Amino acid sequence: MNEAKYIWMNGEFKPWKEAQTHVLSHTLHYGNGVIEGTKAYKTAKGYAIFRLNDHTARLLESAKMTLIEIPYTVEQLNEAQLELVRKNEFNGDNVYLRPFAFLGYGVMGVYHKDAPVETVLAAWEWGAYLGEEGLKSGIRLKIASMNRPSNTSNMGKAKATANYLNSQMAKFEAIECGYDEALLLDDQGYVAEASGASFFMVYKGQLISPPNDNSLESITQKTVIEIAKDMGYEVVRRRISREELYIAEEAFLTGTAAEITPVRDIDARIIGGGSRGPITEKIQSTYFDIVFGRNAKYEHYLTYID
Ligand code: PPE
Prior knowledge:
Helix content is 27%, strand content 28%.
């Protein structure tokens, strides 16, 4: 990975290599942690973090859901993230931020009430999540053999570290099979989300994205719905079954890291023209205009570091 200079840990900036934890940290054994993924883009007025407040608020909400008490406010964490981007003196086009909280060292056994909470903000330059070529020409998506766990046994709306075991197994399987990313169905057989992104498809001119019944309340998905409606597209949130995927006219994934990544193939069915579709392309270029500060209408989503 691309190392940066500093990581904020429990209220202090530490040199990158000194931000460490003990091997007996609770989360390493039992998996209860919460993460965010937030992005800063280099605009004409310097770096701006996209939807900073929404991401930080979701971190605190995820933590509340999973019984982790983060001892900082949204405002404190927002300010620290801005300072983190400033202090690291990045150069690249964009910077990925990973705010997270985990349970540290001192308690063993599943009961975690007395385990210390460690709060961390890291940032680094991270290239295109599904590759530069993926952004242009689309990726190949495979429906995973595992389902997204149901609401009776999981908290899919929390951006919980523990949810990523399911994602990891699905992603590994997809890549082993020659695909780029995994799409997970829910326990009823309807689309939930990709291993690290949300799903959209176009059919008969309508933009369709599944409800967040057992998937992350995605910030990019919300943004895309807002901008697509603004562009005049009809957007529908409804369940999508497997066979509907196969006859989609266009499909794409959305996420902070994935941005707007076109899908060109699902389970060996070529989607549309087998490349980035025209509606996908328009939404993608609008999204990039917004995050890079080239669209005044959405500037309220940007927090400039200076
Ligand atoms: N679903 C999942 C499972 C998910 O991990 C993400 C983001 C999304 C949907 C989209 O959420 P949002 O970023 O709010 O639009 N995944 C993050 C981490 C990916 C990783 O591999 O790490 C991200 O995009 O930052």
